[in-house]
Specification:
Elements lengths: L17 H22 L1 H9 L22 H6 L15 E5 L7 E5 L1 H18 L6 E4 L7 H13 L2 E3 L6 H10 L4 E4 L1 H13 L11 E5 L5 H11 L2 E8 L4 E7 L6 E3 L4 E6 L13 E7 L10 E10 L11 E8 L4 E3 L2 E3 L1 H8 L5 E10 L6 E8 L6 H16 L3 E5 L15 E3 L4
Parallel strand pairs: 3-4, 3-5, 5-6, 6-7, 16-19, 17-18
Antiparallel strand pairs: 1-2, 7-8, 8-9, 9-13, 10-11, 11-12, 12-13, 14-15, 16-17
Bound molecules: 5'-O-[hydroxy(phenylacetyl)phosphoryl]adenosine.
């Protein structure tokens, strides 16, 4: 395979008939079990407790349901290198996810892991429409965050002209986007909106740009947010999903059909479980996404509980790929607020807010406990300084109450007053005493 030839499907495995794909998954699942038994003491002990002492004990793919889970706390407790199944010297790269509580989650790659990740990103980005020679403006942070390097390596592998701008310095982002003619923008969705604002502030019109495609991920965003970004930047926005513990971006991504995110199933076995019982739900039903790595050397993980909520379908897609798709990614279980007994995802509030024309796509939820009861306030901005903020708040409060079942105070602040982020937006500020 030549790395720069133009092709719509990067790898034949993307269209493999499902029985063949499942056979490949079983073979690779056994290899993962073998690697864990040999090199990851914590995972090995759990497997033995579950009666699995050799790769051959996994007789069929569905046997994965009998295997024990791995959770984020395992990585935290083994910080920094305790979960690696290879000697530290074999790691050629380390990344980490920020982790809202204390220590980051450290992940690592062997040379083969990096090569596989690059291929997965080239595959996903080709699926999204990136072609050799396109100018790719990468505004994902470079550093411990996997976003920057992931899109960089994938874009380079395809043969795009990669511009490693990284996050921040938004005025310079705007200038470079115009001057270097970026056709593909890679960023978190919230940062894409910050760039759009910087363009406006610099007086750069969208028709001076050459943008065609936006590859966005790293945080949840609703269809309303996607439409807003598409309007502001005049591009087609596609969603990328991933997590450092699997590789970073490159776990799942949308094709132009935008009917869910194709999971790279030859590398990741996906399941959806009921987060309370731990049991696998029926296909198409919502629950917590769980992944098993199928080819990772440094950090093989069996049934890793992501904390992300979604559903999965393996019905055929219009694009011809046979890879299953994640639908309705709604956010993380940890971001779900339980206010006076009602469950609430920030994405639900985003959906409601952005359905109102005068509301700008910048908001956050503040939870407080002034007495013994939780109080929730939504802070959001109007689209312009001309909007009557008091009247807008008075209109939003009953709307939110009606659709969420919770009394939510609304504070419409001045344009620009909701804090912006260079990477993932902070949507929930929890001021409850701990
Ligand atoms: O955010 C990897 C990534 C970078 C994916 C850039 C796509 C684009 P972490 O920093 O480890 O890795 O954070 C992983 O981010 O468990 C989800 O909660 C959330 N997340 C990532 N992509 C999406 C998405 C990267 N498209 C965590 N929709 C995951 C919703 C997402 N949530």
């Amino acid at each position: 395979m030549s790395a720069t030839s133009e092709r719509a499907v990067w790898d034949a495995v993307e269209t493999l008939p499902r029985p063949e794909l499942r056979a490949l998954q079983l073979e690779r699942l056994r290899a993962t079990v073998g690697r864990v038994l040999e090199g990851q003491p914590l995972g090995a002990a759990r497997l033995r407790d579950a009666g699995v002492t050799a790769p051959g004990d996994v007789a069929a793919l569905d046997d994965v349901m009998r295997l024990p889970f791995t959770v984020k706390a395992d990585l935290r407790d083994s910080y920094p290198f305790g979960m690696f199944a290879v000697p530290r010297e074999q790691l050629v790269r380390v990344h980490a996810s920020s982790g809202s509580h204390g220590k980051p989650t450290v992940v690592g790659y062997t040379r083969a892991d990096l090569e596989a990740w690059t291929e997965l990103m080239a595959r996903s980005m080709t699926m999204a429409g990136v072609r050799p020679g396109m100018v790719l403006h990468n505004a994902n942070g470079y550093g411990l965050f996997t976003g920057g390097h992931g899109f960089h390596d994938g874009g380079q592998r395809i043969g795009a002209t990669v511009i490693p701008v990284s996050g921040g310095f938004s005025a310079r982002q705007a200038m470079l986007l115009r001057d270097l003619g970026g056709q593909v923008l890679c960023a978190t969705p919230s940062y894409a909106l910050v760039i759009a604002q910087a363009l406006r502030e610099a007086g750069i019109e969208v028709d001076e740009l050459r943008l065609e495609l936006g590859l966005f991920g790293g945080e949840p965003f609703t269809d309303e947010m996607r439409a807003q970004i598409e309007r502001e930047l005049a591009l087609t926005a596609l969603m990328f999903y991933g997590l450092s513990e699997m590789c970073g971006p490159g776990v799942a991504a949308e094709c132009p059909a935008r009917a869910g995110l194709h999971v790279q199933e030859d590398h990741f076995l996906v399941e959806v479980i009921d987060p309370n019982s731990g049991l696998v739900v029926d296909e198409g039903e919502g629950g917590e996404l769980v992944f098993t790595t199928l080819a990772k050397e440094a950090l093989p993980l069996i049934r890793y509980r992501t904390g992300d909520v979604g559903s999965v379908t393996s019905e055929p897609c219009g694009c011809g790929r046979t890879l299953a798709r994640i639908r309705s990614l709604r956010g993380r279980l940890d971001d779900m607020l339980i206010v006076r007994g009602v469950n609430l995802f920030p994405s639900h509030v985003e959906h409601l807010l952005l359905g109102v024309e005068e509301v700008a796509p910048h908001y956050r939820l503040i939870v407080e406990r002034p007495e013994h009861m939780d109080e929730l306030t939504v802070e959001c901005e109007p689209v312009s300084a001309d909007v009557d903020r008091v009247e807008l708040a008075a209109r939003l409060e009953p709307l939110l109450r009606e659709h969420t079942g919770i009394r939510i105070a609304v504070s419409v602040v001045e344009p620009g007053a909701v804090p912006r982020s260079e990477g993932k937006a902070v949507r929930v500020v929890d001021r409850r005493p701990t």
